[in-house]
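Lay summary. Proteins are chains of building blocks that fold into shapes, and those shapes determine what they do. In this project we predict the shape from the chain. Here is one chain we studied, written as its sequence of building blocks.
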Amino acid sequence: MTSGTDWGTRAAGQRRSSGAESEIPRRQPAKIKALQQAVRLANLAVDKKNWGTARYALSRARALTDALPANVAVREREKLSAVRKRYAARNTPAAKNAKQAKATPAKRASGKKPAPKKSTAKSAAQQPKPAPVRDLGDRFLNRAALGYGSTDETKRPRTR
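And here is the predicted shape, written in a compact code that computers can read:
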């Protein structure tokens, strides 16, 4: 192991892995299943805006579709093209406008005015409730060990 002095040069020689380098199953049903998983993963990654995972899953799906005949897995290819469109639209002005529209809530359609807010001076004067005290059961301190004298059962008050 090194102390990290060569990390810069090592990282320069490494490339980001794409899904195309991973193994492709030999049998056709396994290829179709792997393609379905890759499309599902890409869809989830695009939903969560995890672009690196989406790129990996899309490149894996592309390698799998290239390994399959054109007339096989038509439904998966359609799903894959839909995910590709969503992935490609991630930095477009339309996507940014949609993000801004979500950030600013729409005004009310009716002419009603919102109810007046209560004054905050009264709520600021109220103190927050203290945290509830946990019941620790019957626990006794060894007062003799702490230097407070002896402990007798007769002096200790009963809690039950």
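What the prediction tells us: Residues 21 and 54 are 15 Å apart (CA to CA).
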